[in-house]
Amino acid sequence: MNHNIDDPRIRRLLDLWQGALTAPPGRGRIALALAMGACCHIVFAAAILSMIYAMFHGLSRGLGSVSYPWAVFANLLLIVQFPLGHSLLLSKGGGRLLRRLIPGNHGSVLSTTTYAIIASLQLLALFWLWTPSGILWWQAEGVTLYVVSGLYLLAFLLLGKAIFDAGVELQSGALGWLSLLADRAPSFPAMPTLGLFRHIRQPIYLAFACTLWTVPTWTPDQLALAMLWTVYCVLAPLFKERRYARLHGEDWKRYRERVPYMSPRLSKFLP
User: Fold this and answer.
1) Bond preceding residue 260 cis, omega within 30 of 0
2) What pTM did the predictor assign?
3) DSSP of 69-137
4) What is the pLDDT of residues 194-234, one digit of tens each?
């Protein structure tokens, strides 16, 4: 590993890989780690691509076939199951459940990977099982399509940057299976303060909300998703910050006083 790298985000990733490459042998452990890693990242990639595709078309191409008006309730259930499940699994009870889902002695180490797999499956369920309303309000064309699509791409790039700054190994589920491969307990990233976290405390949620509102196709389906998930993006971090306050104490308090919640101070960017 190159010890001259100063960025702690890069150092964490290199340290994980070095540990995985130099770990003691253990066929069962290694096979489980690699299988969970492959499953996690394949499902994770499928979920992100499905989200990009489905929202680009305003949720007008889902495979659900529930008849209306029951489709309204089915779609609403698909919308709320993601934030509810996402939040419940972060609770103490949810953590215990995650540790028990993998039989044997490795459930605790793999809990972040298991969490990422479940979250990805939730996204896949939403975007593939959605029953479209069949109503098209607006679709960008010509130059407008290129402009809006560029903004849509930019929102996802911003989301990727925020995930990297928060600790991509944790956010993507790699921390669990790489730690198991290295035969050691997961080392969680410190409280994120670098990159976008220098300017706002919740850049992941802000970027996620931006992806909801920069789509080139608008339908009642997309509007419902954008409105409900934006509420989630604004309120959910409040519970996350309570956990940070318990975990990081005075460090979090000073950071919270210095950095705004989700709206950057424009004075920092002005001459």
Assistant:
1) no
2) 0.86
3) THHHHHHHHHHHHHHHHHHHTTSHHHHHHHHHHS-SS-TTTTHHHHHHHHHHHHHHHHHHH--------
4) 999 999 999 999 999 999 999 999 999 999 999 999 999 99
pLDDT digit string (tens) for 11-50? 666 776 666 666 666 677 888 999 999 999 999 999 999 9
State how beta strands 217-218 and 138-139 pair. Answer: antiparallel
Tally the residues of the chain.
Answer: 271
| Residue of 137, 136, 134, 133 lying closest to 74 (CA atoms) | 133
Q: Report in angstroms the alpha-carbon separations of 224 from 7, 182, 228.
A: 40, 44, 6
Per the DSSP assignment, residues forming a β-bridge with 138 are: 218
Cα 36 from Cα 53, distance rounded (Å): 26
